[in-house]
Amino acid sequence: MNLKICVKLIMYFSFYMFLSGNSIYAAGPSEKLYDIKFSFEGIFGKFDIPSARRGLQLYREVCAGCHGLKYVAYRNLSSLGFSDEEIKTIASEYETKDGPNDEGEMYYRSALPSDKFVDPYENEKAAKAMNNGVAPPDLSLIVKARANGSKYLYSLLVGYEDAPEGFDVANGYYNKFYPGNIIAMPQPLYGDDVEYYDFTEASLEQEALDLVAFLTWTSNPEMHERKKMGFKVFLFLLFMTSLLFLSYKKIWKEIK
């Protein structure tokens, strides 16, 4: 293949990956999702830190009883603006199993900033036993695991409705955005589920936005840094391309 064509293909592919910044996702629902414009979308998008912090509060007060965050450490909260002391305080509110000790026994201790978020269940079998045979999914990467992850999750959270007449919901709850419309998880958010630390009104839509902001962060905490680096690399490639083109024109000017 011609070298020039190869270079162009590589540049086009790199530019596409920089613009998209997306992974390959699993299939989602057929229902059209709510077209929410999140602050972290686009090339220059970044996390709304106050919203993500409120989402953490929602997770801790509403979701943590059933869902874990096994890939997120408490110390990672520093990127959401929490100080070392605040992180220590948050971690110390949970107990995690450790050991064995000198007697060869496992024991419980207060979690440390270096620990991952403590799971609500001892193990997967315990999770299944407490949830009708199905373990609740871990939420660390839930946004990456769904097509249009953030929009899908927002739509799901606000998509609970009364089932249409004649629709059998004996095995779950009706949600117009969930594939098949029957979801095992009861509606988690209703609005006014928490009293926000910053006194933001806790409507259903606001809670859904905040929880999605936080779970998008847990799925991709390095997003802002990656975008900054990608933009720098793009500018560097653009500069080098221009320099090579000018060099090419100068070198071959006389021959042409």
- Any guess at the CATH architecture of the domain at 37-72 and 121-226? Orthogonal Bundle
Please state how the strands of the largest beta sheet are arranged side by side: 1-2
Categorize the overall geometry.
globular
Specify Rg, calculated over alpha carbons. 24 Å
Class derived from helix and strand content: mainly alpha
What's the order of the H and E elements? HHHEEHHEEHH
Counted by DSSP, the helix tally is 7
The CATH superfamily of the domain at 37-72 and 121-226 is identified as Cytochrome c-like domain
Low-confidence stretches: 1-28
Characterization of this structure:
- The strands form 2 sheets. Strands 1-2 form a two-stranded antiparallel sheet. A two-stranded antiparallel sheet has the order 3-4.
- The protein has helices spanning 3-20, 49-63, 84-92, 124-129, 149-157, 204-219, 223-251; strands at residues 95-98, 107-110, 173-174, 182-183.
- With 256 residues, the chain is mainly alpha-helical.
- It is globular, with a radius of gyration of 24 Å.
- The chain contains 7 helices and 4 strands, in the order H-H-H-E-E-H-H-E-E-H-H.
- Helix 2 crosses helix 6.
- Among the domains are: 37-72 and 121-226, Cytochrome Bc1 Complex, Chain D, domain 2; 81-115, no CATH class.
- The chain starts with a helix and ends in a 5-residue tail after the last helix.
- Helices cover 40% and strands 5% of the residues.
